[in-house]
Amino acid sequence: MTIILADAAASHALGERLAAVARPGDVIALSGPLGAGKTSIARGLLAALGLEGEAPSPSFAIVQPYGPPELAFPVLHVDLYRIEEPEEAEELGLDEARGDSLLVVEWPERLGAGYWRDALHLTLAMRPDGSRSLTAAVPPAWEARWPI
User: Record's SUPFAM superfamilies (predicted)?
Assistant: First the structure.
């Protein structure tokens, strides 16, 4: 299934809708080129869960944690762009943290295609008119919650 996102506001709104169905233990994997809207989706999700103000991109921190009381439940916003080898990600403890947190992961392909097979994989592509197309790979754990 492909969804067209007209602009950054549409990407933000998609993130807000994801927040309504996401829960701790889930992984939402966001792929696409620089500037495609991955962080806009993450910011919409975080805002809908209670974050006041704009979430910074975790590009340099790699993992930006959020949690109660500011958010409804713990969320780790992860940006793997600077990860060069999958082994580097093991040090981040993401699999352990997943037990009680939602993982929102930008650039998941840095860990290899087989990582987080149960994740909702959303891939963004830029279109000539400036909009974005979003393609979802929906695992069984998400079938009752997607499309949103």
Answer: P-loop containing nucleoside triphosphate hydrolases
